[in-house]
Amino acid sequence: MNTVALMSRDTLLLKQMQEAFARCAPQLSAVLADDPRAATAQIAACWFPLPDSLAALPNLQVIHSVAAGIDHLEHDPSCPDLPVCRVVDPGHRQGMTEYVRWAVIHFHRGFDQVLEQQRQQHWERPLQRPAREFRIGVMGLGSLGSAIAQDLASAGYEVRGWARSKKDLPGVQTFAGTGAFHPFLDGVELLINLLPLTHETRGILNRQTFEHLANGAALVNVGRGGHLNIEDLRQALARGKLRGALLDVFEQEPLPADHPLWKTPGVTITPHMASAASHDCIADQIAENFRRLNAGEPLLNSADRLLGY
Ligand SMILES: NC(=O)c1ccc[n+]([C@@H]2O[C@H](COP(=O)([O-])OP(=O)(O)OC[C@H]3O[C@@H](n4cnc5c(N)ncnc54)[C@H](OP(=O)(O)O)[C@@H]3O)[C@@H](O)[C@H]2O)c1
C-alpha cells in the first residue's frame, strides 16, 4: 500500500487532510505520525512538522509541503535531505487576489483614514486619485506575485514587481536581483510582500527598505512573519514614514493576545487568511506525485531546498 504520513502540530488540519485523502485519493493510505503504518510512508505531507518527527520515518522518499512555502519544514531540524515539493493551487491565486484587491482599495481610496475619522466623528472626504497615479510594488513574482501584479496592472494601477530573475509581465515594470531592489522601491506608495521566507529574504521589510518608499506609504505583508522587522515597522509608523500596515502573517501564530502589534496605531491584523490551498487540491497533488514517484517521472512543483523556495 502507498502510504502518506501526515505531519503537523495542527491537529484540526491533520483531521481535515485525512478526510480529503479519503475523498480524493482512496488508493493511498494517509496516516498520522503516531500510527505504526507511518513507518512505511514514502511521502510525508507537512505543515510545521514537529521536531524530530521526520527522522523517525525510515522509508521516506519525498517531503511534501501542503502549502506554497517550504520554510515551515525548518521547524523539524531532523528533516532529511530528500526531494521537496510544494502545492500550487489555482484557487490559491484567486484567494490571494481577492485579499490584495481589498488591501489596495483600502489604502488607495483612503478607507484607513475614514475609518479613523469615524472614530473621531470627523467628516472629511479623502482626495480621489486615479489608479494610474498610485504606485504599487510587488515583492516576489512567482505563482502568486505575478498573478497579483498583473491583476493590479489590469485594474489600472502603476505596478512594479521585483524578483530574483527578470520577468516579462504585461503592464508591469519589472526589476531583478539585489542591485535593483532600491530602484524598485523608489516612490512606491503601497508595498506588497509575496516573497518566500529564505535566508536571503528574512528581515527584508526593515528600516532601510521603508526609507526608499514614498513618505506615508503603506505595507501589506502576506509573505511570512519572518520577513518583517517589527520594531522598524513600529518606528516607521510612529514617525509617519509609513501610514499603515496590513499584516496577515507572523513569526508566532496565533499572534499572542498580549503582543504589542494588536494595539499599534496604523496596524491592521488578519489571521493568516489571505489564501490557502484547498484540502482536496493538496490530496490530488500529493496523489499525483505519488503516481509520478512510482512511475519514475519528474515530480510536480519541486522546490529547491538550498534556495528555500
Ligand atoms: N498569507 C497567506 O495566506 C499566504 C498564502 C500562500 C503563500 N504565502 C506566501 O507567499 C509566498 C510566495 O508564494 P508563491 O507560490 O508565489 O512562491 P513562488 O512561486 O516560489 O515565487 C517566489 C518569488 O519570489 C522571488 N524570490 C525568491 N527569493 C528572492 C530573492 N532573494 N530576491 C528577490 N526575489 C526573490 C522568486 O524569484 P524568481 O521568480 O526569480 O525565482 C519568485 O518570483 C510563499 O512562500 C508564502 O510564504 C502566503
Note down, in words, how this protein is organized.
This protein is α/β, with parallel strands linked by helices and 309 residues long. 29% of the residues lie in helices and 19% in strands. It is built from eight helices and 13 strands. The strands form two sheets. Strands 8-7-6-9-10-11-12 form a seven-stranded parallel β-sheet. It has a six-stranded mixed β-sheet with strand order 2-1-3-4-5-13, covered by helices on one side. Helix 6 links the parallel strand 9 and strand 10. Helix 1 packs across helix 8 and helix 2 crosses helix 4. The longest helix has 19 residues. It is elongated, with a radius of gyration of 21 Å. The structure holds NADP nicotinamide-adenine-dinucleotide phosphate.
What are the main properties of this structure?
six-stranded mixed β-sheet, binds NADP nicotinamide-adenine-dinucleotide phosphate, 309 residues, seven-stranded parallel β-sheet, alpha/beta
Q: Note the beta-strand portion.
A: 15-25%
Q: How are the strands of the largest sheet arranged?
A: 8-7-6-9-10-11-12
**Percentage of residues assigned to helices:** 25-40%
In N-to-C order, the SSE pattern is: EHEEEEHHEHEEHEHEHEEHE
SS-based structural class?
A: alpha/beta
Rg is 21 Å
**Could you tell me which ligands this complex binds, including any ions or cofactors?**
NADP nicotinamide-adenine-dinucleotide phosphate
Unreliable parts: none
